[in-house]
Amino acid sequence: MQRYDGIIFDLDGTLWDAVEAVVEIWNNALLSVGIEPKLNYDELSKCMGLLIEQIFDRVIPFATQEQRAAIKEKCTSTENYYLSEHGGILYDDVEETLDSLSKTHRLYIVSNCQEGYIQAFFNAHGLKKYFDDYECAGRTGKQKGDNISEIVRRNDLVRPVYVGDTVSDLEAATQANVPFIYAKYGFGDVEKYDACAEKFSDLKDLVF
Length: 208
Fold this sequence. Notes:
Elements: E1 6-9, E2 16-17, H1 19-32, H2 41-45, H3 52-59, H4 65-86, E3 89-90, H5 94-102, E4 106-111, H6 117-125, E5 133-136, H7 137-140, H8 144-154, E6 160-164, H9 167-175, E7 180-183, E8 195-197, H10 203-206
Parallel strand pairs: 1-4, 1-6, 4-5, 6-7, 7-8
Antiparallel strand pairs: 2-3
Helix pairs in contact: 1-4, 4-6, 8-9
């Protein structure tokens, strides 16, 4: 019997790196509300996987509620459009590995992103065919652990696993009572995990 019947993926830092595009979009949004744009790749990459309100608290804690609302609206709409057209940077061997895994496992995505962001990933890279379902904080308003649990529930998974790259991914998997595979090649630094993928293709050996 295989170890897992469903593999649930985080998106940013696990399947792709879209930070360079997101930095430019965020800086333009900050400028539009009168905030000097100073975000860079290193700063924003450390925020990937957080809810947008948590990102605000880290990078622009001084912004007013009105500014936050305007930035959120501009960032989410622009990100979805731009990334749907241009995509991000897929990690090495992502499509080949997904193709292989989809033959033996059911695949899913759960992210803390806004509604439309996962669809942008699908549209840009033609990868929707490999996934059975997906969920995000922007659609449910719930935390990642709750959304993992929802994917497990509505897809009748018995032995799921969550693959992510940050401590918050580990915490979400723990909340959902799901084993955690650490994507070490991503943005985070995680010390506790059930298995570790040095590169994306390692998953082909870790899920059996």
